[in-house]
Amino acid sequence: MAGVVRPMAEQHTSGSCLCGAVSFTVRGPLRPVLACHCSQCRKTSGHYWAATAAPSDCVEITREGALEWFQSSAQAQRGFCRRCGSSLFWRHASRDAWGIAAGALDSPTGLHTQAHIFFADASDYYLIHPDEATIEGSPS
User: Fold this and answer.
1) How far is Cα 42 from Cα 101, in angstroms, rounded to an integer?
2) Contact status, residue 52 vs residue 102, Cβ threshold 8 Å
């Protein structure tokens, strides 16, 4: 019908842990992926942690029976599956957004890596492509 404006469908992205005991849906757009090289992210994930983010109220945990939160610092918590160990979320007490493990999202994600952050903390066993942006700290 000419002249009728139809609203665009709202974007929904789903994801889960390895065993499926924790699943979630994110409503709306996701931030480009940041790869964090800080020592906490490396230790919790076994490598650097690649994460997107969304406002807290846009993240719906659809299956949370095995979701556990670990207080990784005075200001931040990390969400993981206590059954399979998948690292899933990161949240800061003063921010109204959750970091979401990019690898936990169902494909296709449509995302791209924007930058590598806390690159000064990167380990010595890997290299990053020289064309990829690196930031010594974290972007504000």
Assistant:
1) 13
2) yes
106 in any annotated domain: yes
Number of compact structural domains in the chain: 1
> Would you give per-residue pLDDT tens digits along the chain (140 residues)?
455 555 556 789 999 999 999 999 999 999 999 999 999 999 999 999 999 999 999 999 999 899 999 999 999 999 999 999 999 999 999 999 999 999 999 999 999 999 999 999 999 999 999 999 999 988 76
